[in-house]
Automatic annotation (TrEMBL), chain A:
Location (main, coarse): membrane
Enzyme Commission no: 7.1.1.9
Membrane-crossing residue ranges in chain numbering: 43-63, 83-104, 125-145, 165-193, 205-232, 265-283, 295-313, 325-345, 357-378, 398-418, 430-451, 471-494
Organism lineage: Bacteria, Pseudomonadati, Pseudomonadota, Gammaproteobacteria, Aeromonadales
Membrane topology: Multi-pass membrane protein
CDD domains hit by this protein: Cyt_c_Oxidase_I
Species this chain originates from: Zobellella aerophila
Compartment list: Cell membrane; Membrane
Record domain Cytochrome oxidase subunit I profile: where: 30-534
Family: Belongs to the heme-copper respiratory oxidase family.
Function: Cytochrome c oxidase is the component of the respiratory chain that catalyzes the reduction of oxygen to water. Subunits 1-3 form the functional core of the enzyme complex. CO I is the catalytic subunit of the enzyme. Electrons originating in cytochrome c are transferred via the copper A center of subunit 2 and heme A of subunit 1 to the bimetallic center formed by heme A3 and copper B.
Protein name per UniProt: Cytochrome c oxidase subunit 1
InterPro entries per record: Cyt_c_oxase-like_su1_dom, Cyt_c_oxase-like_su1_sf, Cyt_C_Oxase_1, Cyt_c_Oxase_su1_BS, Cyt_c_oxase_su1_dom, Cyt_c_oxidase_su1_bac
Gene name linked to the record: ctaD
Matching SUPFAM superfamilies: Cytochrome c oxidase subunit I-like
From TrEMBL, chain B:
Family: Belongs to the cytochrome c oxidase subunit 2 family.
Cofactor(s) the protein requires to work: Cu cation
Topology of this chain in the membrane: Multi-pass membrane protein
Catalytic activity entry: 4 Fe(II)-[cytochrome c] + O2 + 8 H(+)(in) = 4 Fe(III)-[cytochrome c] + 2 H2O + 4 H(+)(out)
Matches recorded under Pfam families: COX2 (PF00116), COX2_TM (PF02790), Cytochrome_CBB3 (PF13442)
PROSITE patterns assigned: COX2, COX2_CUA, COX2_TM, CYTC
Domain Cytochrome c residues, every copy: 277-357
EC number: 7.1.1.9
Function according to Swiss-Prot or TrEMBL: Subunits I and II form the functional core of the enzyme complex. Electrons originating in cytochrome c are transferred via heme a and Cu(A) to the binuclear center formed by heme a3 and Cu(B).
The protein's name in its UniProt record: Cytochrome c oxidase subunit 2
Coiled coil: none
TM region positions: 46-66, 87-109
Amino acid sequence: MTQQDRTQTADGHLEVEHAHHGPAKGIGRWLFTTNHKDIGSMYLLFSLTMFLVGGSMAMVIRAELFQPGLQLVEPNFFNQMTTMHGLVMIFGAVMPAFVGLANWMVPMMIGAPDMALPRMNNWSFWILPFAFALMLSSLFMPGGGPNFGWTFYAPLSTHYSPDSTGLFVFSIHIMGISSIMGAMNVIVTIWNLRAPGMTWMKLPLFCWTWLITAFLLIAVMPVLAGVATMVLTDKYFGTSFFAAAGGGDPVMFQHIFWFFGHPEVYIMILPSFGIISAILPTFCRKPLFGYSSMVYATASIAGLSFLVWAHHMFTVGMPVAAELFFMYCTMLISVPTGVKVFNWVATMWRGSLSFEVPMLFALAFIILFTIGGFSGLMLAMTPADFQYHDTYFVVAHFHYVLVTGAIFSVMAAVYYWLPKWTGHMFNERLAKWHFWCSLVSVNVLFFPMHFLGLAGMPRRIPDYALQFADINVLVSIGGFAFGLSQLIFVVVLVKCIRGGEPATAAVWEGSHGLEWTLPSPAPYHTFTTPPEIK
Amino acid sequence: MGVRVKLLLLLLSLPTSLPVLANSRFNMTPGVTDISRQVYDLHMTILLICVVIGILVFGAMFWAIIHHRKSKGAKAAQFHESTRVEILWTLIPFLILIAMAVPATRTLIAMEDPSQSDLTVQITGSQWKWHYRYFDQGVEFYSLLATLPQEINGSLSKAGNYLLEVDRPLVLPTDRKIRFLITSDDVIHSWWVPAFAVKKDAIPGFINEAWTRINTPGMYRGQCAELCGKDHAFMPIVVDAREPEQFAQWLAQTKTRQAEAKAAEQALAAMEMTRDELMSLGEQVYLRSCAACHQAGGEGLPGAFPALKGSELILQDRAAHIDVVLHGKAGTAMQNFDKQLALKELAAVITYERNAWGNDTGDLVQPGDIAAARQGQ
């Protein structure tokens, strides 16, 4: 009865609003907006910008590594590039992309009129550009920007870091606040604003994975803020959290950092699982295989992510018992992850497949993410990890998971929902060019890195021994090609936003779910009356 | 059909061809110790398992992609659950993991047991060099990159062991259990020799243990594996493994030589060097030991490493200048050079810093002054 009441009042209220409210005009629309679609678009555009900024840093790195010797940049600047590339891509490109997708899609998938906390939503986006302005500006300060790797291990980041480290710490704080606000919004929205009849086990998997991700974010972002603050006080206020000379412990930094860092890794991949689970059934014209086991697998991956942090630090000299514990837990993670991959393959099995661009990216995701998973399993074996650790094998591993995993899934999602957002179909031919160029170049870029690492090339070095020369040429060529391929993506996006063949409401033949019941482009206000789910 | 069978055979032959890669530079080295061999076998086994699972999973995927496509008229089935299958593909990977965990555990426990060693070497990392000390032998030395800066910047062509050569390699005996005690003077470094499968972090204020027993004499090369600042790429490790008798011989010789050098050092204290001698030796030492941070022109890197050119400390406080070079500056990257450089070199480099790049203090620092400063005068 209360449900009925609420619906009716909301209805009456919104009818009045409709008469006055469309998007506001001018810059004010974007600055003061509380509309989940506007905020989602801003998040996605911000993410794209950061993807290009972080990508150009990767181009500098690959250009320097094209040949042995120092040609283009000084080692200190090279270290700033590797550090900033990591920070910008993780906190600027991947995470805001997922928050943007959540903003756009979660309300439309659960039949809600907007995010539950719209004003906070505005804040959580608008503090991000300031955080990145702070961090990027440190590159132009005397002594340069952060040069200690995105993992900022003490004491390299405390007593041995450049003067600009304070800016780095503050920008990390702001990014953390933004992430926590975004995560709270997702939790409150999914918990409270589901349409009548949408029970937990009817919730689309994208919402499920994001809900779990949001809890991870709230759990670990304060840990990152804490460790960054300890770095700040060690450097500027004479504390000795991480200085052995004052009774502290540099290894404690790594424990705290990776207690944040490992769940962070899953923060960047769980929403991808949701995206792929949304796209596959559409283009296989067949329901997702094992919905409930997908939910349980996601939850158990999230739970396990708190028990494996020290596998990033097997070489710091832990007791054997601890090494064994972290090895076993890490190996265990491959079980729920395997379940997901098997479920996707079972979803494809005896379906009726077609290969539109979102599907191509989703298929590439499954194969290439699984390759990243395999190398992850190899890295879990502690004795072998002693050989892989801090080499290009690790670089290959996490780029397979993050680029062909997280970023490919974001691209799949963008192509999947772009017609719903803009009301236009994108240029399929160009988009296919984007896909095939990316697919080929990304593998030329990252696959040979496995060999470099196994042959003994350490990561984070601006210059290397001669036996690594030929593979590095290949890798750099792949890198430039992958970078250029993303310009096609930008062209497709711009063209699609400006016009194109009108999209239908369903857009795709096999589409399923509430968002496809709305017209394309989705109106500024949607589901002002909650739909009934049977 | 024929093409498909051939493709299948090709795929199936892939795992068997993996061991061919064993000794190529595309794969991990089996190394020269029993442990490194075990690690290599573990690596190859897990790789093989991954390849087989990959072939099965991707095979099923591609089968669906090829045969179950809409353009071929495939009609979608509507099944979406099977508890039996789900349990099966949870359990099988779990069993595979247990099978893998057994040898991994065995190797790991062996790797972490440095007891009953025949020889102990203390390894200390610092920005950007390694220091080795043979316990109870009175032998110790620094090991620095031997590649010329001109090779790095491209004005000379790069030689065979570019970036993997040092002035003084660590000499070790074969067939002996050698224990390493690993630590650091400044930031975290990591001592890694792939051929021994030893990689252990050097952590300031803490001592890590590792061990090896080398089976074959030879030169083995590795690098620092933990980002340790600007010249992380330029602190290689070279181990010269010799037969035990030759090692004993080398150790005895080095011991005598180092004792002699120490005695000669005392005699130096009374020696007066000319300005030219001091300046030319000083420049060499400066370029080798100081220029990485303070730069060849003494201008430093603003915001990271202070300039020496026009430095107030240098121009106004001679005693403080000598003190900071000798003892370093706590809480910064400035190291303690007392044990790294000889008396003569210290005197020369301080004189050089006080008179180069327009720092015209005009005063000379003699080995005797250093010896006096050492005694706290």
